[in-house]
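pls ignore typos typing on phone
zinc ion + seq
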Amino acid sequence: MEHQELNTTTLTRTATCNKHGEYEEVQKECYGPGKDEFGDYTVVKFLKWTGHCAECVAEIVRREEEHKAKMERHKLHERIRASGIPGGFLEESLDSYIADNPGQQKALSVARDYVANFGEHVYSGRNLLFTGKPGCGKTHLAVAIGMALMKMGASVRWTTASDMTRRFTDTWGRREGENETQVLADLTGADLLILDEAGVQSGSEVELRTIFNVIDGRYREKLPTLVASNLSIKNLTPYVGERVIDRLRDNGSELVAFDWESYRGKKGARNTSAPRPFMSSAGHAVAAGKPK
Ligand SMILES: [Zn+2]
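k done
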C-alpha cells in the first residue's frame, strides 16, 4: 500500500526547484503503512512536504496529455487502416453531407442518430439499410458513420460485396497470409460492418454463401451491419438470398430509401476543394490516390 495524500495543507514554506526557481512548497497530511505503539504494522497518519513545484507538475500533466493524444491518433489511424475504407473516401463526414431536401435531411438525421446511439445498436444488432439510386450519397453517409464511430473507438470494416467474396476466395489454396477462418472472424467481429454496393455482383453460389456466412455470423453475435445497395430490398434479395434479407431486417433495423435526384453533381459543384473519389462509368469508386 502506497501512502495517500490528503488535500489538507498543514504548512507552507519557500523551496527551490532546479528548473523553475523559488516556489511555495506545501505540507500535506498523509496516510500510509507504518507501525503502531506495539510495533504492529498498521495505517498511520503523518505529515509530508510534497516537493511539488506547480510548474513542474503542469509540465508533467501537459506531457502526459500530449502522449495520450498521440496514442489516440495512432490508434485511430490503425482503426482506419484496418477498416478497409478507400483513401479517397476518408474525408467524408456527416457535416459535409448536403441535406437540402426532406429525403436527405431524413437520411442525415438517421445517420446522426445511429452514431449517437451506437452503444445500444451495437448490442442489439440493429442494422441500417440504405437503398436507392446511385449518386444520392449512400456511400458518403455510410463512410461518414464509420469514420464517426472509429473516432469514438469502435472497430469498423468497409467492403463491397464483390471484394468480400474475393477476400475469401483469395485464401483458397494459399499457405501464407490470412486464412478463411481469419477473414470470417475479421468481418463478423467488427463493431460495424459496412457492406457497400450490395447487388453489384453475380449472385453466384460462392457469393451467396460468403454473404450468408458473414451476415449470419454477425446476426448471431447481434452485431450490426450497414448495407448500401442501388437496388430495392425486393430486387436485392436474389443477390444476397432471402435468409440474409430476413436477418438484416430483424432486430428493429432501419431502412432509408435514397429516392431523390442524384447528389453527385451538386456536391462536386459546391465542394471543389476536397479530394473526391473518381467514379468510373460502372459506378465503382476508385480511390483518388490521396497522399497519406
Ligand atoms: Zn519546477
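The beta strands are 4-17, 21-35, 41-49, 128-132, 156-160, 192-196, 225-229, 254-258, 278-279, 285-286. The mean pLDDT is 85. more later
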